[in-house]
């Protein structure tokens, strides 16, 4: 199987050296997938220089020209779809079919924002006198720096890259240390598609602080877009304050999944499976705590347990695998700790509950797990899991479950299942979350605004709101 040996991708070319490297290993086997050069202040500064140099040329292109090149980029990536999907599975362990789906999802952001490029409208406003005119225009914010996570190596980049390119911005990304290879290949294919050199740059850093320190100190970088933990988001927000850089933060989640007694049970179970166990539960919007009305609690548990027990755990490259490995030992320890805590406090383990460690190879699997009889004292009901564990608690009335659901510092995604429109609207409006999936377990899509409230972040990605994050508004006052 192919092994990758890559550098940084700056100003349209491979640059750097292999004096210090980051090894990328398959979390399902421990085998080496490849290695990349590790950089820091010097490489980040070079990427800023390249992005700044390319900015005038790229922003000066017409919206149609940028859109045409973005579509060519889509075409090149589609031609390499199988390689990118396999690479993502080897980098972070998920089933190959899910990686293939992510390639399509990632490209949907490029496609959507290629269309939005032509809809960056200004306006003419009546002036204050006969000779006065007011013109409002939109312009690109400038050089953008992005920091992306390992769990969606392609789509978390394109969700930021798409609107940046469409708006006329240039782009620098520091991918996660576990999954840099996908990012580097995307940047290579962008240049192959004709996107000018310096528009899309990738810097690999074993020490992320060197990347952030450099971009925060350089006034040419005008926007930071980050997806990751709330703890790191706080640091980025504080650092950006010095130069008043624009910031978008997509941070942690702790999604409640509410199933009312009038819900379509089959639909709720299907959605619960998709939301909870996709990517081995390692998504920021996956269901973390299930609240099921007492009237359908037992029937739901029976149906859900049957489905969970059918999931096959294994190497993502094997065609019948449903749930892959956890990304690292810290993730494994957190999942195991939450399960142990729940059982110790009275939870009943209906399916799974055990993990497998191979510390010598850095390989960590945890069985798809279903816990019943949960309560609010348990860790799993109070902190994000990021693993294939579903905890189920029964509730009696709507006010009670809304209170439980909102009792969290996070507010990214919530899920609600009811067939009653009036009830659903009331509950959806009361849920303190940026995204509510009503009878929908997978609400994310390029044409919808994605983002949270409270400590789950600021700003939106996707939809019309997504491109506004990369634009500044200018008012031109004209006297004739």
Keywords:
480 residues; alpha/beta; Aldehyde Dehydrogenase, Chain A, domain 1; Aldehyde Dehydrogenase, Chain A, domain 2; six-stranded mixed sheet; 14 helices; 24% strand; globular; Succinate semialdehyde dehydrogenase
Question: Any chance you could write out the topology, listing elements then pairs?
Answer:
Elements: E1 4-6, E2 8-10, E3 13-15, E4 21-25, E5 32-37, H1 41-60, H2 63-79, H3 81-92, H4 96-116, E6 123-126, E7 132-140, E8 143-147, H5 155-167, E9 170-174, H6 180-192, E10 200-202, H7 208-217, E11 221-227, H8 230-240, E12 246-250, E13 255-259, H9 265-277, E14 287-293, H10 297-309, H11 329-344, E15 348-351, E16 355-358, E17 363-366, E18 369-372, E19 389-395, H12 398-406, E20 410-411, E21 413-417, H13 421-430, E22 435-438, E23 453-454, E24 457-458, H14 463-468, E25 471-479
Parallel strand pairs: 1-5, 8-9, 8-11, 9-10, 11-12, 13-14, 13-21, 14-19, 18-19, 21-22
Antiparallel strand pairs: 2-3, 4-5, 6-7, 7-25, 12-24, 15-18, 16-17, 20-23
Helix pairs in contact: 1-7, 2-4, 2-5, 2-6, 3-4, 3-6, 4-5, 9-10
């Amino acid at each position: 199987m192919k092994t990758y040996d890559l550098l940084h991708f700056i100003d349209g070319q491979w640059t750097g050296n292999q004096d210090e490297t980051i090894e990328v290993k398959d979390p399902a086997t421990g085998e080496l997938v490849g290695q990349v050069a590790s950089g820091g202040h010097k490489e980040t500064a070079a990427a800023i220089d390249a992005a700044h140099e390319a900015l005038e040329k790229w922003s000066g292109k017409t919206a149609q020209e940028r859109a045409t090149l973005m579509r060519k980029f889509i075409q090149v990536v589609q031609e390499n779809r199988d390689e990118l999907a396999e690479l993502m599975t080897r980098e972070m362990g998920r089933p190959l079919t899910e990686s293939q789906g992510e390639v399509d999802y990632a490209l949907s952001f490029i496609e959507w924002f290629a269309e939005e490029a032509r809809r960056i409208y200004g306006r003419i406003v009546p002036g204050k006198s006969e000779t006065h005119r007011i013109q409002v225009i939109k312009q690109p914010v400038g050089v953008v720096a992005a920091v992306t996570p390992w769990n969606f190596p392609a789509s978390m980049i394109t969700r930021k890259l798409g609107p940046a390119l469409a708006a006329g911005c240039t782009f620098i990304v520091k991918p996660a240390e576990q999954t840099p290879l996908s990012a580097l290949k995307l940047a290579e294919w962008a240049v192959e598609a004709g996107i000018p050199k310096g528009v899309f740059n990738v810097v690999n850093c074993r020490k992320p602080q060197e990347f952030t320190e450099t971009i925060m100190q350089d006034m040419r970088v005008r926007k930071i877009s980050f997806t990751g933990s709330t703890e790191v988001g706080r640091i980025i927000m504080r650092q950006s304050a010095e130069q008043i850089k624009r910031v978008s933060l997509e941070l942690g989640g702790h999604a409640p999944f509410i199933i009312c007694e009038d819900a379509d049970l089959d639909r709720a179970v299907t959605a619960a499976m998709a939301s909870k166990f996709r990517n081995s539960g390692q998504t920021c919007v996956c269901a973390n705590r299930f609240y099921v009305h007492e009237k359908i609690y037992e029937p739901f548990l029976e149906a859900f347990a049957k489905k969970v027990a059918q999931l096959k755990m294994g190497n993502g490259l094997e065609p019948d695998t449903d749930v892959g490995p956890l990304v690292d030992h810290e993730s494994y320890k957190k999942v195991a700790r939450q399960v142990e805590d729940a059982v110790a406090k009275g939870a009943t383990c209906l399916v799974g509950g055990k993990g497998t460690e191979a510390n010598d190879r850095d390989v960590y699997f945890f069985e798809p797990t279903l816990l019943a009889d949960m309560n609010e004292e348990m860790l799993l009901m109070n902190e994000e899991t990021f693993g294939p564990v579903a905890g189920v608690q029964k509730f009696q009335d709507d006010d009670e479950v809304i209170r439980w659901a909102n009792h969290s510092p996070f507010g990214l995604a919530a899920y609600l299942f009811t067939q009653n429109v009036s009830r659903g609207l009331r509950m959806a409006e009361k849920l303190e979350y940026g995204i509510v999936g009503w009878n929908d377990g997978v609400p994310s899509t390029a044409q919808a605004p994605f983002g949270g409230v409270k400590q789950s972040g600021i700003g939106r990605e996707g939809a019309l709101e997504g491109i506004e994050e990369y634009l500044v508004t200018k008012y031109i006052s004209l006297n004739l």
